[in-house]
């Protein structure tokens, strides 16, 4: 778990280069190739499963909890963020930061 014991990006790059070279030159054991093909197939199947799971999750998420709060505003610069924070602190902002019910519409 010690980060200092992990390989560097250069070491990983060299390792991947060696593996690719062996794959390109057909120097890899058939057992290794079977494992790679199985891993790739599992990744494809997992991705399909995860996509389906996410779809189901988001299709149910349209029902919001009555006490949930959400505020979405585009802040294009750090300067804009500082201005917004100052407005909120001073009470000049029209946004209620504690809770916005789902019937309230924010006009930008």
Automatic annotation (TrEMBL):
Superkingdom of the source species: Eukaryota
Protein's recorded name: 4352_t:CDS:1
Originating species: Diversispora eburnea
